[in-house]
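Anyone up for a design puzzle?
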C-alpha cells in the first residue's frame, strides 16, 4: 500500500502540492517534543510517504527500510533547524512542515523572503528595546543549545552507517534490492546532517543581519550580550560532525575579531 501511494503521488506531484500545503498548514499547531508540533496521523504517516515520492521525483535517495530509533531521533532533532527561527515560527511554519517529510527540499532557504526575520524583529511591538534584543538573544541561544544533542545522535547514526556499509563485505544473505535500500538510507542520513549544517549557516547569517540592523535602529548595552551569544553559536556550529556534508554550505561571514562593543571580543566562558 505504501509503495502504491508513492507511485500515485509520483505521477501527480503538481496536482498534490496545493492539497499537501493545506494539510501541512493545518498540522502546524501545538508544540510537542524537540520543538516539533504534536504528532498526528497526517504528519507522521501520510506526509512522509508523500515526501518520499516527491524526493524520488527530484532524484534524491529514498529508502523504505524501517528507521532505527536513532534515525527517528535524528529527524526529530533536525526539525527545529528546518523550521524558521524559534521566536518567529509563525512566519512560515507550514514550510517547515513540508521540508521535514521532504515534500520540499530540506536544504532550501529558511525564510520565504530575505530579511523577513529582521523585519519582524524590528516591527513587532515589544514592550521595550531590551525585550526586542532579548528575543534575538533567546533565539540564538535556543539554536546553540540544540546543537549538542543533535551532534551526539548524528555521530552515532554516522557510526552505525559506517558499520552497515562495511558489513556488506562479509554478509551474504542480503539481496541487491536490500543493499540498495540500506545504502539509500545511509545517503538520506548524510543529506539530513548536510541540511542541518546548511540551516545553521543560514541561521548565523540571519542573526547577524538582524543584530546589525537592530544595532543601528535601537542600540543598547545588551547588544554586547547578543554578539557574544552569536559567537558562541558559531563556535558550536563548527563541530566536526557537522562537517560531514555532501555539498558546500552557504557562505557565512567569519567570526569577527573585533566586536561592536568594548569587551565583546573577549574569550567566551561557557557555563554548561
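Challenge accepted. My sequence:
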Amino acid at each position: 500500500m505504501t509503495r502504491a501511494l508513492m507511485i500515485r503521488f509520483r505521477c501527480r506531484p503538481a496536482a498534490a502540492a496545493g492539497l499537501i500545503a493545506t494539510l501541512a498548514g493545518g498540522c502546524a499547531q501545538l508544540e510537542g517534543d524537540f520543538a516539533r508540533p504534536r504528532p498526528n496521523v497526517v504528519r507522521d504517516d501520510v506526509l512522509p510517504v508523500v515526501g518520499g515520492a516527491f524526493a524520488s521525483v527530484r532524484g534524491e535517495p529514498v529508502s523504505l527500510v524501517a528507521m532505527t530509533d536513532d534515525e527517528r531521533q535524528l529527524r526529530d532533532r533536525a526539525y527545529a533547524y528546518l523550521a524558521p527561527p524559534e521566536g518567529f515560527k509563525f512566519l512560515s511554519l507550514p514550510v517547515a512542515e513540508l521540508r521535514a517529510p521532504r515534500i520540499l527540499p530540506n536544504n532550501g532557504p529558511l525564510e520565504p523572503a530575505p530579511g523577513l526575520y529582521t523585519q519582524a524583529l524590528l516591527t513587532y511591538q515589544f514592550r521595550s528595546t531590551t525585550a526586542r534584543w532579548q528575543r534575538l538573544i533567546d533565539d540564538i541561544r535556543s539554536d546553540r543549545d540544540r546543537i549538542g544533542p543533535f551532534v551526539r545522535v548524528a555521530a552515532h547514526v554516522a557510526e552505525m552507517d559506517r558499520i552497515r556499509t562495511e558489513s556488506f563485505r562479509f554478509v551474504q544473505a542480503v539481496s541487491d534490492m536490500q543493499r540498495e535500500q540500506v545504502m539509500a538510507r545511509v545517503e538520506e542520513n548524510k543529506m539530513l546532517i548536510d541540511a542541518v549544517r546548511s540551516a545553521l549557516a543560514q541561521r548565523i547569517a540571519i542573526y547577524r543581519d538582524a543584530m546589525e540592523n537592530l544595532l543601528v535602529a535601537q542600540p543598547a548595552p545588551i547588544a554586547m550580550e547578543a554578539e557574544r551569544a552569536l559567537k558562541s553559536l558559531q563556535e558550536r556550529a563548527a563541530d566536526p560532525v557537522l562537517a560531514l556534508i555532501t555539498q558546500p554550505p552557504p557562505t557565512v561571514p567569519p567570526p569577527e575579531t573585533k566586536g561592536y562593543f568594548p569587551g565583546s571580543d573577549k574569550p567566551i566562558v561557557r557555563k554548561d
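A detail worth pointing out: The longest helix spans residues 176-217.
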